[in-house]
Specification:
Glycoprotein, Type 4 Pilin; Dna Ligase, domain 1; 2 domains; 6 helices
């Protein structure tokens, strides 16, 4: 998936880091300061911001918006803030950690419904390319494409992982009343904290 150039990706990652750094240092931080620095990015795509410790790559926070509602410019700042300070799995990021964190920005394609749960239907899910979303009533779970690669999962393990993320029993994705979607991402990440930004292939 190709939406933005590398230069645009660098701008997005820089804006995400600026959001976190400014908010960590000032409780009166105004998000519009960063939004106004992004001169374009008015398109609507899903956005996720992921934080990892360097060099272990241990997850430190990951929150975003799977379905586009606001512009990328708006959602990026909100996702960066939430990943650093509102991920319920972690304590808020402190300003002392800023030099130990890798900032990663994922831009999501429009989710596509996966209607067939047959082996043939599931073969349309490609490990490493597709992320998944599970929805059932008030329950929902999303896993970005890189999770399956990092965990060395096959397709069924990926779907089971999404069920677990949603708070549903393993294998619940097989139920006909469960909604299943797939999506692709374009990912830009720092190689080192505040360092060079690259696009992940």
């Amino acid at each position: 998936m190709k939406i933005y150039t590398l230069e645009q990706g660098k701008e997005l990652v820089k804006a995400a880091r600026s959001t976190i750094e400014l908010a960590a240092r000032s409780p009166r931080f105004k998000r519009e300061l960063v939004r106004s620095s992004l001169k374009s990015f008015d398109e609507k795509y899903g956005v996720f911001v992921t934080l990892k410790h360097y060099p272990t790559e241990t997850l430190r926070g990951c929150i975003g918006f799977p379905k586009p509602v606001e512009s990328v410019r708006m959602e990026l700042v909100d996702a960066a803030f939430a990943a650093a300070f509102e991920d319920p799995r972690f304590v808020p990021v402190s300003h002392k950690e800023l030099d130990e964190l890798i900032v990663e920005v994922s831009i999501l394609s429009e989710p596509i419904a996966v209607k067939s749960r047959s082996p043939a239907g599931l073969r349309r899910l490609k490990i490493g390319r597709d992320g998944v979303i599970i929805e059932y009533g008030l329950y929902s779970g999303l896993l970005l494409p890189e999770v399956a690669v990092e965990q060395k999962w096959d397709r069924e393990q990926l779907l089971d992982g999404a069920c677990e993320k949603a708070g549903l029993p393993t294998g619940y994705w097989k139920q006909p009343n469960v909604k299943l979607y797939k999506f692709e991402t374009q990912v830009f990440t720092e190689e080192t904290p505040s360092g060079n930004v690259v696009e992940l292939k």
